[in-house]
Protein 1
Amino acid sequence: MRAVKNLLVLYTGGTIGMLQTPQGLAPASGFEARLHDYLLAHPEVQAPDWRLLELEPLLDSANMQQANWLAMRDAIVKAVVEDGHDGVLLLHGTDTLAYSAAALSFLLLGLNVPVVLTGSMLPAGTPNSDAWDNLSGALGIMASGIERGVHLFFNGALLQGTRASKLRSEAFDAFAVQPRHREGVCADSLPATLDYRQRRTPVRLAVLPLFPGLQAEQLRGLLNSGIQGLLLECYGSGTGPSDDAALLQVLSEARQQGVLLAAISQCPQGSVLFDTYAAGSRLRDTGLVSGGGMTREAALGKLFALLGAGLSVDEAERWFALDLCGERAA
């Protein structure tokens, strides 16, 4: 636990800083002055010395893309390595907040400072908004002491970046950690190719939940679209339509052609245990690698970080199966 003394507040947009426009709420610049005025009016709020950087373009987080994750990663690394900041508070919209927290957890492996993401369900300045509570709470935690790594702070709770999900669309307690089964072998060390210094490139990824009636040709069309990795959300403990020989053949062919196939459970509190049912074993035998109890956000962010680092499919599968930052092991 270490108190942050020199904080970068990285403002990316999101509801927390939105203002009303004729088209509805939209991200607005000028949040530095609003934060400065709030802290002057509330001297009881603990806050490290800080400066604010607006990351252009400001986004409604519904528009978040991999390129924006890479831009956030670059800004954070520069702030720490070149500018001497010992902590980063990232202001972000809630729609994809958990996705960004998970992706940054893997993009910033080895970075020896805390990074906290927060946002709000209502804009700052709106009556009864949660914006200032979330912001002042995050500032207070960083001023009093926090472990390194990527965290998500919301509604008074500090959550691990690779375990959080957005569960509610209207309540202030929108984010939580689902009690998924967690087990796995932790990586003894990280190669330089997965270190925060390693730049990444965009990756063509897809997520597909299994559902009754999924046809082999539908799956083939997705796999033939040029994707490099597929995250398959299986039933329960990792089962699927294992009596559909054509669908299993499509998966096998995709793996042989170099597509990384990973599996998680589509149950909010589920975990992939392929050997529990024969249906799961048959899916595994097509080349799927188990994501254990990882969330969709963590699994997608991890695939992006691994394949984006230029790892081969075999290498990426090996690291996907290991715990890198608490995403699959307790």
Protein 2
Amino acid sequence: MSMQSTLNRALFDQVMVPNYNPAAVIPVRGQGSRVWDQEGREFIDFAGGIAVNCLGHCHPALVGALKDQGEKLWHLSNVMTNEPALQLAKTLTDSTFAERVYFANSGAEANEAALKLARRWALENGGEQKDQIIAFTKAFHGRTFFTVTVGGQPAYSDGFGPKPQGVDHIDFNDLAALEAVISDRTCAVMMEPIQGEGGIIPATQEFMEGVRALCDKHNALLIFDEVQTGVGRTGNLYAYQHYGVAPDILTTAKALGGGFPIAAMLTTAKIAESLKVGTHGSTYGGNPLACAVANAVLGVVNTPDVLEGVTVKHRKFLDGLNAINDKYQVFSEVRGQGLLIGAVLNDDFAGRARDFLVASADEGLMCLVAGANVVRFTPSLVISDEEIELGLARFEKAVAKVKLG
């Protein structure tokens, strides 16, 4: 019996904690926007590891960076700094509103750092009573106990005992609701420029500008969670640039490492002062291996070619999905920005997003869901036109299957 055949889906249930329920398919190899499983079946990847593999699989620039750095230095601890980390911090500050960077390993960790910084800053700049954090229903900010409490999906934070206090939730894109809740006791407002897990819901321009103005009025920090929207996903390096509204703190992860774990929290020099020596830390944050890969990612993504290409590919996806919908009438709308796209199911198919995902996998296409009513697409930013067309053809077959039962 080959080793491969024993490493199967059944083994998962014997050795893994049951918090995931993965598909039976086990991918073993990827190239660009294609993936092959144990049986040699080919899939087109419209999922990108949930907006992580921004340059697809095994991109030569990333493989090269990993191999080069892998023969130099992997880890040092933050008792010392290192060249890849300094380069990455410089690139991020040169390319954004930010002046200071803190490195971590995941979006949740970057958000945890952002929330801790906001609370510490408010304590020093407004006193103990300035502790309110305002976030939005359906928001997702990670799975640590603090970030999951700030996230607007109670099902993820219920059942673990008393939650961190001082967190209020209001509806997204509802400026009047924010105005009613915000005050001088507000420490920070945290939001995704486009709600991801919540259903690919972009903030309106008016809402973005209104939130910024209310934060300024009440001396509260505005935190943008750009874990999913960042690193070229929307056609700008960060989505806030599309709105022309800068936050005080921004978090980035997922695509930043193109598949290698790394995250960063970006902020201004003034606000950063509140994270004095010893107030926060991370064992692996800013390690040379992750930073070298992230430098390679930005070297490719943060170019006019790739960023403008995202907008062109967005159009191609929209046209393709709308053409499929003209035929089969399953979506009420297709929304999103760049290559963060949500196809919203109409009333006839409400709650059945997972059926489309499963049918797609049967046709050799990897896609995602965002809640029960939205099919989500977050492919590589450099996916070829040919792969887009092939993937959409497979998706059309899946849609036909679900439609015709």
Protein 3
Amino acid sequence: MKLAAPSDNAHSGAAAAAPAPAAQSRFVSLDFLRGCAVMGILAMNIVAFAMPEIAYINPAAYGAGDGGNITAWLFGFLFFDGKMRGLFSLLFGASMMIVIMQMTERGEDPTKRHYARMFWLAIFGLLHFFLIWWGDILFSYAAAGSVAYLFHHLSSRSLIKWGLILYAAAFLTISLASGAMLYTQYRAYQPGASATEIRDYRVLIEDTGYGQAAIDRDLAVHRGSYAGILDDKLTEKLFDPLLGIIGVLLETLPFMLIGMAMAQNGFITGQAKPQTYRRFAIWGFGGGLILTALCAAVNIRTAFDPVTVMVIEMNAAMPARLLMTVGYAALLILFIRRFSLACISQHISAAGRVAFTNYIGTSVCMTAIFYGYGFGLYGQVSRPWLYGFVLCAWAVMLLWSKPWLAHFHYGPLEWLWRSLARGRLQPLRRVA
């Protein structure tokens, strides 16, 4: 399958210069996709907000092993895990490319502006990580975006090719680590396994966060004070943002390159033919869902064996995540092209326009709800009930975003980021 061919007028709206932000063209599909992505990310991140980190990928590691817990995990694994992050990465690359194209067509050099944006995004990410929540992606996105810019001069076909090459290289690289983990487990389970082989396996389990000592420590930290949580990050997790860049470059950078291509050829801005989107929706989303279901079946069949879960999460599910991410984009674009005037579509699009503020805002709210310095619910709410908090947060996103944008050009953090990157305060309030 090929992505949509470039259109003669694919960038006419994006390239139009205007004196005021209100006059600038926007791609409705891009805003709508971003709104769906920021809402979907919370649906998966809620477990990481409310439970020890290992519970994010393994429902048997923490919490009851009943049917409700497994069903909630299965729903998240099938439809959200990795797919929303992938969609957000596509959109990050697409938005970045649109800004580059806008500036280039106006005869401006986008390099300085781009790296200023990435610098301040990295600062926001570090503040988010250390002061609010350990699951930050902004710092890693800034790093990946800085590398992705080096590819911006390529055609959409070349960007897709490089994205797929890098994704395949990442898959093969991670496969080596997965193979080593499986081999360590295999040796430990053999009759007559040596004490060294058994010890190596136990160390592997402890290092992946499955040990009871690691879980107890996690609970103690996050049920404690704000000062204790901050101290843990400054002492035990000081270099985690830098280490996270490695994983992001392996998976997120390819998604960004593909998103840049989709901005060039008009796919992600809703300018491809309907049959193109239908084809990607069927083969991408449908095929990816089947592969994801097979991975889920293996996890359940092995009773969520720690090594098996880890291998599937970081390696085996990669092809399915890529297919479903592109399939999601196609499905959502088909929806917004047909129902762009629907009330819910407009509210989701508005949430997407202030996605940065919504993303940070959910971190502030959820940590206040679950951490010890707030309501102290950390580790005490079962997985199915966590979706109640997600629905409430979605309602808040949808209710505040559109009214805010009726009076202001940007969300609060979008405005701050834009002002810092441009070195001067940007107009915020709309003029009647």
Protein 4
Amino acid sequence: MDFLSDFLTLFLAKLQSPTLGFLIGGMVVAAVNSRLTIPDPIYKFIVFMLLLKVGLSGGIAIREANLAEMLLPAAFAMIVGILIVFIGRYTLAKLPNVKTVDAIATAGLFGAVSGSTLAAALTLLETEGIEYEAWAAALYPFMDIPALVTAIVLASIYNNKQKQRRAAEEQLSKQEYLSKQPVASGGYSSGQNVAAGGRPKKQQVERVKVWPIVKESLQGSALSALLLGLALGILTQPESVFESFYEPLFRGLLSILMLVMGMEATARLGELRKVGQWYALYAFVAPLLHGLIAFGFGMIAHVITGFSLGGVVIMAVIAASSSDISGPPTLRAGIPSANPSAYIGSSTAVGTPVALALGIPLYIGLAQALAGG
């Protein structure tokens, strides 16, 4: 009971944080149809600055870290990213009136990582004085890329199977039609696609090329900014500019980003209504479930390697997040048959607010309760 009481107290306290306050404020501003707008170039610049700062801090830490300590958390991040996509494939895709390719794309977006949600979590961890490995932010690509690749591969396999099934049905229909027609002398073949015994030949399966998917992910603006920061942090000595410029601006820029995301979440509610209640249910439950799964893997790393509880929280948060910048264009290119309103609407209207307002306080409160115990 003491554990539960401490956890609930800590959880409620997180909901009153300034970061989450700006998110809720943005949602309220949009709900009352305010004309307040934040230009898109400013939003993109803020995201770039935040992720570059996160990358720099991670790169500086990696330069001084024992790389062996990173192996298990990185492996777990990859496993969680792939697992999230399979969970969506065999849960959301099975619900009524949900198209399989739309479900796979949605699961891929929820398996990918939101840089802004990660930045919010890092700020709250620092506010609470919870220590974490600075390189933990580098787990981002280990979860993000495998999730996107897995989603696109699964969607391609599914689409190929559907094409084969349709082709087989067409060939069988054609064969049945021809069998009812009189055969003239020197009759004709029923088609090159029909094998001996009247069965249609299997269509050649198109191979999924993985490298273009990885390349597309690496070239995304969010991941590029993070990787650039990591490279600069590892290969150069950016401490002076980091402490004098990036560090002081971080929380102010993050507050504006949360305001924009709150406004965007409310604006996307209309898109979510188009694709039905099942996506809303998935988008509410999935971030919390994914985060708890990652939290469990993180605790295994905590026991085995001494991975900090703050690092466990970061792993849970990136699992709970859904990509808001690099993921949508990657999925548009990789799964063009999927409906963007389904996966983008689910993510921005429900998934991201749940991850920010409920997920981050939940995992931080859980980590603090465990530390107190």
